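Support request, priority: normal
Reporter: lab tech (M.K.)
Component: structure prediction queue

Hi team, I submitted a job for Olfactory receptor from Chinchilla lanigera yesterday, and the status page still shows it as pending. I've pasted the exact input below so you can check whether something in the sequence is tripping the parser. The sequence length should be 314 residues. Please let me know if I need to resubmit or if it's stuck on your end.
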Amino acid sequence: MLSFNQSVFHPAVFFLTGIPGLETSHIWISIPFCCLYATAISGNTMILFVIITERSLHEPMYYFLSMLSFTDLGLCLSTLVTMLGIFWFNAREISFDACLGQMFFIHGFTFMESSVLLVMAFDRFIAICNPLRYAMILTNSRIIKVGFAIVIRGTSALVPLLLLLKHLSFCQSHVLHHSYCFHPDVMKLSCTDTMINSAFGLAIVISTAGLDSVLILLSYVLIIHSVLGIASMEERKKAFGTCISHISAVAIFYIPMISLSLVHRFGKHAPPFVHTLIANVYLLIPPVMNPIIYSVKTKQIRKAVLKLCFSKLV
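Reply from support: The job had stalled in the queue. We restarted it manually and it finished. Here are the results:
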């Protein structure tokens, strides 16, 4: 099923992949995935709700946390329909345009999350290294501008990337190797030269997640240098304690991303289901873990969540 448009062949549909070799167990495999989706959606929704409704949380640090929860929620919902559709109904078909749309949201929210983590690192840097100017630097108007900048940065480069993809011809297999549309996966199915697409895609990754990771590392080098200059050991522990949640969020975002890249590059002899499982879990770990980390490690969030839960029980 191919459609012809200006000498470019586009498939009417792509075929997504479940867990190769475990198709008969999809209904059972869906149970832990359903639990992960339920945890991610309820956890991030709760974080957003308590930050919006609790006036004591109307501070820069928690505004940035709400941005993180929003991107996690968007990332989670971007794959929900296709992944559970495959597990429950074996609904593997996805149209070319729908595939491009899903790619836009998956990669867009991923890049936005990277930007939010960078902004949160900057927030911790200002709070620890220049606390007297914290409120002066991170005003509400600037935080709103930062939010808009994160959205624009995360999505603007994707438009030309997807337009370049539309100019490729797909005359080979239309079977993707994930339960969702992933740019490198779709690009591999093209029977035309993809050098420009690959180079542009790599440039986007380097200028977003790559650059962000370097700047986050630099911010913590400066934070550590500043904290070590504090004479009181108690004050040092307190300063480092405010960073634990953010460091954990950075780790659960970048470690699965690096692991997935290593598996794709060096795990050619691994069973096919290993690649698919890691790819599926990679997009779910941050949305699931971030609300748990901030609810456990951040006292104000924990108190607000417990207050909300107990008020519902009364």
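The chain has 13 helices and four strands. Residues 121 and 218 are 10 Å apart (CA to CA). Let us know if anything else looks off. Ticket resolved.
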